[in-house]
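Q: What structure does this chain adopt?
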Amino acid sequence: MVKISVKERYMKMLKKSLIIIPIVCGMVLFVWMKNTKQPPIRFESKERVQTVRVISLEKTPVVPRAIGYGYVEADRTWEAISEVSGKIVYMNENLKKGYFIKKGELLLKIDTTPYGLAETRGVAELMNIDARLKELVQSRKNTQRLLSIEKKSLVSAAQELERKRELFDKGYISASDLEKEERIFLTHQTTVNTLQNTLALIPSQKKALLAQKKSGESTVSERRLDVAKTEIYAPFNCRLSVVNIELHQYATAGSVLVKAESIDRAEILIQLTPQKLLNLMPREAGSMALELPDMEMIRRAIGITAKVRLPMDKVNQIEWDGQFSRTSESIDLKTGAITVYIIVDNPYGNILLGKRPPLITNMYVEVELRGKPVPDRFIIPRSSIHGGKIYICTKENRLKIKPVKVEFHMEDIAVLSTGIEQGEILVLSDLVPAVEGMLLKPVHADDIAKQLKCQAAGEAL
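A:
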């Protein structure tokens, strides 16, 4: 018989207790939980509140604006084209590319010797014609005197011939004597006819000489004009852009010697879409019917002003006052835009070294066009329009969705004239999803409201 030690018994009892104790503890815990359980707590559902940025809508005057970019050009350009040929005998010391030239300043002078000699020959020919005219006048006087004498001689010869014929009929003279008298009579008659013909030709000869004189005078005038054309003067205050000649070089007629640009006015061409240009036009009703449209009257009617700026510096902006000049006669077929011409007076004025440069040719600039102020308009950010509708925060802080019609866009703002009431609260935030009637928590964005007012007035922040 095997004997079990006390230690082994203890171990068996410990193993059984490890199984029974957890079971007993679990039963006790189950009974405790059953006796102490409580019904579930019900939480009341609360409506979700969406925080949004808002601004108050108020009517304000709006200055329509449009931005365009273009290159500066000279308002007037001039090409000095040689009208005569010859050697350059004088050249202005400032005749160099980039130099400034005053109006009326002599630039070039071509050798006048060939044209001076031609003028002298023409004057000599005129003097010869004048002498021939005087000679013709004297010849007329002499011919008239001779004709008077010959007419008297012809009368005497006729009387003598008649007397001889009577004597011949009576037989007192021979036939040869009669024939001799007849020849004398015919000689006087021929002389009279010749002198009469000479007098008759004198007016035609005079006309021919006068025509030659007129032609000679024209020739002399042309030679004198050629002499005047040998000197080239600046037609206005300008800056030289091209110089194609040097001293003692031969200039051929028709060649471009110098090119220059005016410095009193600059011109800028920008392109705008027809809609942007239309936004600048006055809103008041009116018509303009002219037989021949006057551009100055059109400029006064539409009242567009301009600011020209260098786009390189946004902090210290450099700008010039410009004027609307005109538009192109047609729309560009490639871009569908209208070319607008802007002029700037005195582009070289108010120059500050290192700070303000002159407005020179081919400079790339930004042009802001401004129309006449439009009163009583609502200004909202373009981003606050959602598919032709805006979000309004009601007095009860509820969302209201309203359709609106935009009158025109200007940069990042939209201009409205209808669809909004004074004092309504516009929601700027983008709500996803936007459910009409949802509860809002408005937060006024004063910075956005101030920015919109400045944009509407065209002022810098």
